Amino acid sequence: MPVRPAEPGLVGRDRQLAAVRAGLVRARAGDTALLLVHGGPGSGKTALLDACAVAVEASVRRVTCGPDVVSAIATLLADAPDRPGTPPSCRYPDHVRTLTATGPLVLLLDDAHRCDPGSVEVLDLLVRRGSGLLVVAAVAAVGGIGARPPGWGVVAPRCQPLDLPPLDLPDVAELVRRRWQRPGDEAFVAACLRGAGGNPLALRMILDRVGNGPPVAGRATAVLAAGCAVLAELLPGRLAQHTEETRAVSEAVAVLGRTDAESIAMLAGVSETVVASAFAALCADGVLGVADLDTLRAALLADLPPARLRWWHARAARLLADAGRPAGEIAAHLLALPEVGEPWMRAILREAAATAPDRDTAACYLDHALAADPVDVPTLVDYVRTAGEADPHTAHRLLRAGLERTTGVRERAELAIELAWLTPAAAGAPSVVPTLAAALADLDATLGVRPTGPDRELRVRGEAARLAAGWTRPPVTAGGPVPAGDTPAERDLLALRAFTDMLTARAADVAAARATAALAEPGTLRWPHAAAAYALAVAGDVPAALTGLDRVLASAGPTGWTRTLAGMLRALVLADAGDAPAAVADAERAVTAMDSVDTARVALATAHVRQGDLAAAVRVLPETDPDVPVLGHPLSLVVRAAAAEDAGDLDGALTHLNRCGAVLTELGVENPLVAPWWVAAARLLAATGRSTAAADLAAEGADAAARWGTGNGRGLALFAAGTVELAQDPKAGRDVLAEAVELLETGAAAWYLALAELALGEAALRTGDRVGARKVFRAAADGAVRCGYRGVAVQARARLVAAGGRVHRVPGGTDTLTHAERRVAELATAGATNREIADRLLITVRTVETHLTSLYRKLGVAGRSALHVAIMERDRS
């Protein structure tokens, strides 16, 4: 007989129905057949019997076995003649022969594992001696597929087993199609299969829970949630019928989250043989091997009483620790305990935090350990280093509380040092300087003049902390011997000393050497290393500075002081080095990373000035003095001066610039390149007829630049001197400005180069050299466009036209691309991924994304697919 598709409502059971029809064929031929349908709860045993009753063309009799059915065979053959004194072994076979004389007879037994033994014996007799009989008995799988069900051992050799495996993906897809009269999205169907584990009953319950909304991918999450709820609802009933040992195994699986027999046996306190038997029983019952392990765990754990769950986790943690398992694995169980009162538990949590995959996980471990012992100094220090930047004020409070309750000299020094490192992030918190000074004085008295080993490292950390505490104040004198940079503490100290050297205009090569040593070793970098990288930029090594800042950003968390500082410093470097769009993007991300840092807004305003958007620059400036005075306050005044000059208020601009100089003096910042206010001030003084004051200011700036000793500094000094000279002697001014341009071209000072070229073009015009002026203005315009200096580009193009030249290109072609964008574009059009581009150019993936965004904007394309064509077309134009 050919196999027909499953009956309506029954899916995935074609093979089983075909076996029933084949048994009926044998019965018609005068033979007998016994089919033992084997499946776990909800696998569709009853539904299969329902389909059998409809599908077979024969006389069908059916019974559901259970406590209320004293004799299944008597119920099935209730019309058998009553013959007093005749045993069942004779009475029922005779009656079956009568019934099958005119056609086959089908007996269906549901819940046959609960059938009475007498009926099983009679059925065995009927199968052995009868003819024209088909018996289909559905039994619950309690010992694994293929195991003999209780009471049916006598007939097992003569029966044909018929298992009901879980539904597969096509089966589930068909059920979904029937339910909604349309195919379900692939993700929706996959979620149904995962949530139900292929169990028909569970699937039906899940579909009932999710309601009648369309079977689309967006509802896959709701399906999985319903799957967890359904499994939790079904599990108690399924587990109740198992032995205590089997239930213990299931709970151990839920707690450990894995199914290897050795671990489960250890936790459950049973042998591996018992575990194997329990697994077989749980698989047959639909507890294991049906739903995915995560769904099963959630359901099992939800059903455990809290006290028992805590007992399991405590036992698991101890056993795993004794077995030498990884700290992270043990910590997952310790987190489930209300407190970790034993020292070994807190030690495990600290170890787990050190190897945690992310800061949030590490902070969670350490926070749990601190809850048990808030003054455990090593744990508190680890917590602050991990989570302090994300929540600096809470970390500040915890450290202060720890200091109040800690008496050990070294321990107090540890806490005071960490408090100092938090100073930049915890804006508005009480000053740490007195606390740190007292702790370090006590430490010096205890350690003596020449400490060694860990004590020496602690003392070096203390000196670095002293500089860190003065981050937002006038530069702290950095005395004492210069460390070699062999340890993390020495590199922290070198980084801060390099930044202090830069602020105080110590020789640029000295500051650069210290910054380079601070950044020399691989590994995690902290916020002082961002300051050191910025010192490198001011010293003239922009590529090394950007590499260092990228490394700091790679080490930083998604938010917090380190990310904000590194991002805003990178923005300042890029703004002057020739990539204003990337500078704006970096500054915006820095503001987002820690919204409370006003100096990040100053960096964003500075980048807007470079782009020529003065209105945006003023709009984003903080209303109050920035929180990092040595950078934010002076630079904010320079931005306000630029806005005032743009509005035609030259006196107002000079007021802001002079105030900038006064602020820098108050702060002890002597480096003329930190905020070159004097360059703009000298130009404005000369333009307003105050040539003597302009010359004096330019000379002072030149002296300071000479002490610092960089080409960019000398170039700025010549730029300032040239603008002053231009007001009195255009020819002499032109010569000085030409020298300034030549010097600035050799460094990464694109912003000041563009301004100097504008001034040089004006000098050429004043001396009557219109051809030379056009050449300079064209170079200024092209360079400004490449750098994203739109305001300067507009001025240069206007002056080019005034000098009799023509603008041949409109902004937006490949001539607007920076060198970095060009390199990224070449690799991207060659098919390299963002990661491959980053590895090739030794930059971060985030930097690649920034360059690509700028490329798309400049070239007017939506993505990579159009990039190659756009570049070719622009180059041909």
From TrEMBL:
<dbReference type="InterPro" id="IPR036388">
    <property type="entry name" value="WH-like_DNA-bd_sf"/>
</dbReference>
<dbReference type="InterPro" id="IPR011990">
    <property type="entry name" value="TPR-like_helical_dom_sf"/>
</dbReference>
<dbReference type="GO" id="GO:0006355">
    <property type="term" value="P:regulation of DNA-templated transcription"/>
</dbReference>
<dbReference type="Pfam" id="PF13191">
    <property type="entry name" value="AAA_16"/>
</dbReference>
<dbReference type="GO" id="GO:0005524">
    <property type="term" value="F:ATP binding"/>
</dbReference>
<dbReference type="InterPro" id="IPR041664">
    <property type="entry name" value="AAA_16"/>
</dbReference>
<keyword id="KW-0067">ATP-binding</keyword>
<dbReference type="Pfam" id="PF00196">
    <property type="entry name" value="GerE"/>
</dbReference>
<dbReference type="GO" id="GO:0004016">
    <property type="term" value="F:adenylate cyclase activity"/>
</dbReference>
<protein>
    <submittedName>
        <fullName>ATP/maltotriose-dependent transcriptional regulator MalT</fullName>
    </submittedName>
</protein>
<dbReference type="GO" id="GO:0003677">
    <property type="term" value="F:DNA binding"/>
</dbReference>
<dbReference type="InterPro" id="IPR016032">
    <property type="entry name" value="Sig_transdc_resp-reg_C-effctor"/>
</dbReference>
<dbReference type="InterPro" id="IPR003593">
    <property type="entry name" value="AAA+_ATPase"/>
</dbReference>
<dbReference type="InterPro" id="IPR027417">
    <property type="entry name" value="P-loop_NTPase"/>
</dbReference>
<dbReference type="GO" id="GO:0005737">
    <property type="term" value="C:cytoplasm"/>
</dbReference>
<dbReference type="InterPro" id="IPR000792">
    <property type="entry name" value="Tscrpt_reg_LuxR_C"/>
</dbReference>
<feature type="domain" description="HTH luxR-type">
    <location>
        <begin position="810"/>
        <end position="876"/>
    </location>
</feature>
<keyword id="KW-0547">Nucleotide-binding</keyword>
